[in-house]
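sanity check this record:
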Amino acid sequence: MIQKDVVFVAGSPSTVSRSSAVARSVAARLEALGHATQWHDVRDFDAGDVFFARSDAPAVRRLVESVRGAAAVVFSTPVYKATYAGALKALVDLIPPDALAGKPVLGIGTTRLEAHGGALARSFDALFSFFQARTLGTLVVLDGEVSVGESGSTLTVGAEGRLATALRELSCALGTSA
């Protein structure tokens, strides 16, 4: 099987992040299917480079190059004010408008309130539409459905089921099966 890179862009500013834990679960399962994954975390960037949109900064160049070369892209975020985190938005603003055209993209979000999951999905749909990406939807996991600890993370049965569905859709878009 030909390995295809899937790039993950994590927008949580927290060092212990539920949304990043869910995204890492997806990444691990993709790797088990033979896909290579790359990870870009908002904490890996110099805040000034992001805030002032320094496209020539090495970390920003790496982000743009990996997104351009990716077979698919996954964005993960905690939900703040019923949408994706501002930190993720700042990273997304560094990505050129044509970099995601036609690529499968998946959104992942964790939220305290179930109602905010729909708002996040609509926000991601609008964002992915702007980029003319192939939207695979949004995997929403409630905060209470994911536990993050020193030994890793665990999801409830319901969250695991939604993750499996998202993984199947992503795998199908990549030409593999989960």
